[in-house]
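Quick entry between incubations.
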Amino acid sequence: MPFTALNSRMVEARIAPGQRMFSQRGAMLAYRGEVSFTPNIQGGQGGIGSMIGRRIAGEATPLMTVEGSGTVMFGHGGHHVHVVDLTGETLYVEADRLLAFDGSLDQGTMFMGSQGGVMGMVRGQVTGQGLFTTTLKGHGSAAVMAHGGVIELPITPQRPVHVDPQAYVAHRGEVRNKLSAALGWRDMVGRGSGEAFQLELSGQGTVYVQASEEKL
Amino acid sequence: MACARVHKRWSIVTAARTITAGGATKGRSGADRDQLGSRPVRAPGPPTTVWSVAQFRLQGSKVLAVDMTGDAVKAKNGAMVAYDGQMSFKKMTGGGEGLRGMVTRRLTGEQMAVMEVKGHGTCYFADRASEINLVRLQGEKLYVEASNLLCTDAALRTGTTFTGMRGASQGNGLFTTTVEGTGQAAITSDGPAVVLRVTKQYPLQVDPGAYIAHTGGLKQHFQSGVNFRTLIGEGSGEAFQIRFEGEGLVYVQPSERNTVGGEV
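Done. Structure below.
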């Protein structure tokens, strides 16, 4: 079920009987056809176990299930929306940035500490993202929100990419992330360049960066 | 590695929407205005020239990409969003204008936190999702508010000048920042900026809240349309304007800062 971008801030999704889709609660703007919206108490896929997992992880954004046949338009808060098509890879994204995604994608929660150890946990604190992040895996599309539009930067083993943690939106592929601190004496005396912490992404994949340092 | 770098550079000429100060201005097509480009398109063909200065190009309209090969640029503190390659960030105390510049900036309230970015690779800058305009300077002077200056070539000199009444009405002080020399500068605007040409026959009036920058030999006056209606609180909200006369270009944003003039 592909998303079509109507403009930079709105996407339209076609929904057919037998398919379903998850979206952030209240993100529907308009729809055509017979479409039903049911609040999803569990916050996504999986059973009660997954729900508890997400609650504990603080990645439980209120979601709704969209079913029926027709087209639905999504948008939220005037933020830019970026469509990511997945073909088997994994997308790592914060739950609150996720506007809508296909029901065909496997939703999961990942502990940051499992990638990068202690620094991974520090990373979550520095970026204000917490210790957990949401993963989407499989074949399908997801619509991700960002403040001020998104650029995609390719990551290759030869060219790691460094990202400002506040401008980081999401990443996909086989990517390892590491928080690198370039703290010098200047930062200690309050004369820092404002770029003390950077997220180093290495491996093979893509990182999505927003044109702003503001959170959603 | 070196080849790849130069290769990337080669695409810049086509990718960047450069507004050349003093030259013709390229129109921006409305449809793609709001969309950010996905990734840089690398043009085919072997490169023949190697520039030694940092190359500025726009990635979409809100992200500035700067290609560097060991040279440096000055940028607003904390404006980096991503980079590849090797980069170092160093705060330049007092905007890199020495002790005198630092004191001047403190006194005039045109403080700007500037960092020096140096290294090999591509560095991406953005500031609160504001639109970015590239200005190429060939020896002339660019007048811009410190808060609207995102990034400049290291070769450009920055300084402060007195603006008189205009500054006071704009709500950002009596002084403004000047950028001088040969090279590129990136200025930010709230919404896509329009570049208006001023000639001797056609002077221009601008709302102080919408003005962002100007270049060329322009004289500016401050004019007011205060009348009895304004005094009884029935003003149109356009009580003050800046009038530009001479030859040059004025950058205007489609948004107004909160100014004293806007209230009356």
